[in-house]
Amino acid sequence: MNEHRDEIIRIIKEGSPKEMQTALSEFHPSDIADCFKDLDDDDQMHMLLTLNHHLLAEIFSHLKDKKAARYLVRIDAPKVARILDAMDRDDATDIMESFSSETRKQYLSLMDDEAASEIRALLHYGEETAGSIMTTEYIVLKRGMDVKDAMKALVGNATDAESIQRLFVIDDNGFLEGVIELKKLIQARTPKKIDDIMKSEVITVKVSDHTEEVARTIQNYGIYLLPVVNEKNMLKGVITMDDAADILDQETDEDYARFATISAEAEVNRSVIRSAMHRLPWLTLLLALGLIVSGILSGFEETIEQITVLVFFLPLILGMAGNTGTQSLAVTVRGLSKSHYHDKAAVRRHVLKELRVGVLNGIGIGLLSFVTSAIFLLVIGRIGLAEMEYGIPLVSVSVAISVAVALVIATTFGAIIPLTLNKMKIDPAVASGPFITTINDIVGLVVYFTIAAFIILNVWGA
Amino acid sequence: MRKIRILKQHRPREIVALIDHEKREKALKNKLQKYHAYDISQAMLYMDKDQRERLYSYISLEKLARAFEHLYDEKAAEFMLELDKEEAAKVLETMESDDAVDILQHLEHEESVAFLSLLDEGKRERLRKLSRYKHLTAGSEMNPEFITFTADMDVKDAMRRLIEKAGEVETIETLFVVDDQNVLQGVVNLKDLIVAKHPITIKEIMSEKFYAVNVLDGIQKVVKDIQKYDTTAMPVLNDNGVIEGIITMYDAMDIIEEEAHDDYAKLAGIPTEDDLHETAKTSAAKRFPWLALLLVLNILVATVLASFEATIAQIAALVFFQPLILDMAGNIGTQSLAVTVLRISRETLQLKFNIGRHLLRETMIGVLNGAILGILAFLTAFIFLSLLPIGVVGETVQAAQIATVVAISIFLALTVSAFLGSAIPILLNAAKIDPAVASGPLITTLNDIVALFIYFGLATAMIIAVL
Q: pTM to 2 decimals?
């Protein structure tokens, strides 16, 4: 994972203060941040006091925000202010959010005015919005500029910008007019004006847009530097692709976790008891819903007592319905998060498709379960079934028809339920699981025992 | 609860409408040109063949090539065959090599050979080279177009070279310095080059401390390194240190998405390829093998039940709680599975000590929740059974006895399921099998078997044996 780990730790533990600064500068701050977390309090303090604010700023950009804040409050305020000042504005803002408002004020008052006011502005935006993750260090150009002057402006400001792959053109009032790819600018020759090489169809996001939408926009369009504007189309900041990659990583983890009714965030570094409590509600809901299933099963008590062998296939039918339901649920949730069902026709098309998938697999798996259950009964070879008229084929037929019907219904519900929940503004990834499980159980066993009772009891005349 | 946010998807539909209704050829050309290639690619998915053919004849070659880069490989290959041979070759030539190779690999062998023969020689060689690397290695995903300098170059000459080559590469944020054997010596940050003033050589502004990956490295490692070190373009080297290509942050984003999709799909037991634009028949065929496998496993479950036939025949009421126990064991197992797979993918389970602690932790969660739910289940099952008409439960067996068996079974089944849900992916990972293979349904079926053994075993021991 981190091949430099031992060396970094040795430098921290053994090096003189002077050596530590120079020796650690040779490593990537991300690697140092990794090691920092695992050091004991004394070593951490030693590092915080010894290293200069530039290196600490780089290291702290790679720590998780809350952790970084917890370490920083331990050192004297002027140094913290210097560290935050040296960081990219978006990273500094993230850490600032974790301080109490008093501490935050203190640090801001110690920073230089420009940095403080930029961070204050960023702190204004709500959590998980484009505004909260954007940075204000980018290069702007004015319309009408000659490309030569633009190049000069770029050279003068490049070091302060987070990225210079794209440059942004604004008018006198700060409204976004267009973007210029750096590739285009360096190829252009005076007397060209930047208006000639500017692209005015610009893909932007709003400061209030959700970070997931931002990340998807960057991913879909392959934008290295995405402009963020306010409601009036004034340029407020930019978001870089590496930030988008981090968001996407977290979001996909969350999607995955919610599908299993857990929370990825809640699972990190929580005590056993808190994790257990976090997972309990869904299990309790399943218990409650499970009792409904028990109630329905008790209605078939007579059938069960007469033909015990039916029970053997109960988990099979319910399990298979559950499996297909989960499959179409996952496909549907995926489609929702990629916004594939943007109109009624698309929704209808999707549900119909899942229905068709259900029918096809219902037939296939139905036939297969007829064969396997018949073989199973032959091998087990008792239960008095063989003596009954058509005993084995009848039970197998019941199983097969039930599996087929349950599969069709489960697959369709697997698509309908998340779509409905989404329309009701309930997160389909979380809520669908227990409902699907229960509905599939109920459908599966009602179909099974009804068909079995009908076929078997009619034929055997019980 | 959070709502899934719907992204703006109106642009693709606008494009489809444009194709249908804009009859003025010049206007259509101009309007199409203004759309982003990604929107064009999405619109292509919603079009029929005739609409797409109209699109092909009015869109610029450059834009079409970019749109093909955004399509996923299977669809891109399918659409590529709708173009006539010469045009397709031109599109492939304009596309970035890594994306072009992906498409060629999804075509029939003869077709891809035919396309290749129409390409110019340099491009053909590059594509051939790329396609030799194994799937999911850095070599197979890298882009062989990048900009190199030599250390003794003056920055002015370097700038000139950059201007000349900028159009051919994906990103110019990172530039590479090589010796005469093409061995990577260092990297130059674009910013430093822009602000550098002649006379000064590249050697003075380049950084000799750089991160690189090997052509044979697994793509997952590459993506992690790119994210960790925030590199916009990661150089890919062969064993001799010669730079063969680059992998960009943009490539990494797509791979993150694919990997996440894979894990997620495995949790749900669906095939990994995109399921959204397929016909019902293709989807069904892809999901079928998985279901067939699970069916066979479920016959095993039936065997377990068959061994308890006598118990079931005597106390039919036991069956009432069977789905409840199995569902809860299945759910807690899936929870542990998901937590474990996440932790493995985040690499927080590297040390033996951590693994032990994680297993203990998950099992303890099973014990805690099992105890709470066991008590709850005892109460509710007892009330439930007492409410049933007399004779349903049986005269000799007390409701309290069944409720006790249900409660203890839930406690034990939940504990074991939590343990298995976390232990199995760890074992698979240790055996170098993708831990996500232990999909949700597979773990659930395994837990079914365990839970049934516990439940009917307990019932046999605690009730039948006593009777």
A: 0.72
